[in-house]
Amino acid sequence: MLSYSSLKFYGDSMPFGNNSYKSAKTLGYLNSQQALADYAVLIRSLKQNLSSDSSPVVVFGGSYGGMLAAWFRLKYPHIAIGAVASSAPILQFDKITPWSSFYDAVSQDFKDASLNCYKVIKGSWAELDALSTHDDGLIEVSKLFRTCKALHSVYSARDWLWEAFVYTAMVNYPTEANFMMPLPAYPVEEMCKIIDGLPKGASKLSKAFAAASLYYNYTQTEKCFNLEGGTDSHGLHGWDWQACTEMVMPMTCSNESMFPPSSFSYKEFSQDCKKQYGVKPRPHWITTEFGGYRIEQVLKRFGSNMIFSNGMQDPWSRGGVLKNISSSIVALVTQKGAHHVDFRSETKNDPDWLIMQRKQEVAIIEKWLEEYYKDLKQN
Amino acid sequence: MLSYSSLKFYGDSMPFGNNSYKSAKTLGYLNSQQALADYAVLIRSLKQNLSSDSSPVVVFGGSYGGMLAAWFRLKYPHIAIGAVASSAPILQFDKITPWSSFYDAVSQDFKDASLNCYKVIKGSWAELDALSTHDDGLIEVSKLFRTCKALHSVYSARDWLWEAFVYTAMVNYPTEANFMMPLPAYPVEEMCKIIDGLPKGASKLSKAFAAASLYYNYTQTEKCFNLEGGTDSHGLHGWDWQACTEMVMPMTCSNESMFPPSSFSYKEFSQDCKKQYGVKPRPHWITTEFGGYRIEQVLKRFGSNMIFSNGMQDPWSRGGVLKNISSSIVALVTQKGAHHVDFRSETKNDPDWLIMQRKQEVAIIEKWLEEYYKDLKQN
């Protein structure tokens, strides 16, 4: 299982202890190639210690871990006989996938739930902007957003809403979940029910706030919200570094999205990275090292035994492999699936399509194993 | 064309100028993964600058360059549509190929030319050893070997002979050549003719010397030989570093070889590397990074478009891929071929088997290109 928590620099695995994040010198080891090489050494060593040199290994991963799983099979076919890459946006780099697709996909989730809901959220940003020009704007926003402390910046409210909508789209799971935050089944629908249920006269911003509260306070235990100065709730402290070096995923908001239109400036991004880490991002590196352009043509005649699974509710799916490439490099796409939903634990309430998807994955892996053992006997 | 001369640290390409070889810190960049990544960046950049993004690239290489070509296709299939790896001993690592196979192959070349020749060389080492115990041994050896200056060590004579036999086997080409040294066609046969032509009463050592002189003095311009303190004539200054880090190729001499039997001690080798560069060799790294064990099973269902060409006269062939792995990963083996003879320039005297081999390679590459363009149109 290729995941953050088993990787250097994430979770408890700090190669330089408390100094691991100190500088580019130590952080230099935090990159995808090093991660893959670490896995190669680890798996080989494990197999040797367990006296199971000829046991087949299949790698699994979701999200960034899914990218690593896919890349691991491509770069280390002698160590992993196959890979299951769930919600792996390996095409979200460079100019392969349109830069607006991610936020367009988030918006589509909300639009599909309710057109009104989409329109309310889309209109809420202008109301927030308008408030920010008032003398008492910050006080009003603080009151509206039930902040524990008075806000220093309207941008905090904006980011707070933004995060709620993006992550809720990602985790628009068919059953109750606690991935980023505890949430009900199909939380996008629930958010839109809240928005659609509020009086017509209420402001769009207040409706957006009410919807976002579902994300931050589904358990109804919060009396007030900390919009500023909180610690990063997602534990991805290393991702900023990776984004500033190799994992450059330019994103924009189109006019059709429910977010304020925005463009991507490599120059500004690069300046920020220089300031924060003293490094310059390499926007073409991932596609140079791992490919991506014309992936169908390249992998049609190269490689085998890969599953790319994606749920179309997940905005990351737009940067994923959504079509079969060959007889053994296949895409499993579910319309109602969200961010690596197939890798969540089974529940009693799992819908049929999810049960079916997992069964398909198991059947394909069984075929890989069968083939492997057959080949092994022949040698 | 993947070769030494186009690589960092070899030829004129010194990344840190005169300091490139100064320490492990600068030499750290001299490794095969870095070389492959350099090529990836270079090829991509060349194609972009030439506005030929969709032009197919085929990589070629011989010897170490052949290993790089094979590995490049495996690791960067999105950049090279195929690879021709000539005399690429990618299986000469770890315990994949028997450690004695290299010197056994050298010996086989001489045995095939003349059994007497093989026996004379095999017996010459003991005579040299016997001389080294004499009081005037060094003077006698210096005289016998026509050295320009008196020798400091008998080992110099041993190494001098050793090199002549090994390289002559490698370059046992069907036409006159000037790869390491100017040499006649089929130089192993010529060496053996010299040995077999000398009077029965002459010592084995003097015969071995006469044979080796063909290698060092085919043009008959040398009046005396410099056996000690010469500069490395092969220009592979970086190879020692690579051998002490990743390119660990253990070699031994079996009782059946024409060389004095010897074993390989990782401990001693490691101590030498520690002393010379302050580093410890990683004998399992290449097989971890690039595979090699059970290569047929792995590549039977993964990868495509590779030619492994080998000439069986070349002792490196024993660590090469000598059997077809799949319909598009093929081995071209010639019995009379030597070290990447297919990559030498055409000559009027090329034998039919060599002309045929080159034609086969061209035909296979043409098929790759045809397929590539067909696929390109379909997308």
TrEMBL record, chains A, B:
Protein name: Lysosomal Pro-X carboxypeptidase
GO BP annotations listed: proteolysis
InterPro entries per UniProt: AB_hydrolase_fold, Peptidase_S28, Ser_carbopepase_S28_SKS
Any single Pfam family the record assigns to this protein: Peptidase_S28
One GO molecular-function entry: peptidase activity
Family assignment from sequence similarity: Belongs to the peptidase S28 family.
Keywords per UniProt: Glycoprotein, Hydrolase, Protease, Signal
PANTHER family assigned to the protein according to its UniProt record, in alphabetical order: ALPHA_BETA-HYDROLASES SUPERFAMILY PROTEIN, PROTEASE S28 PRO-X CARBOXYPEPTIDASE-RELATED
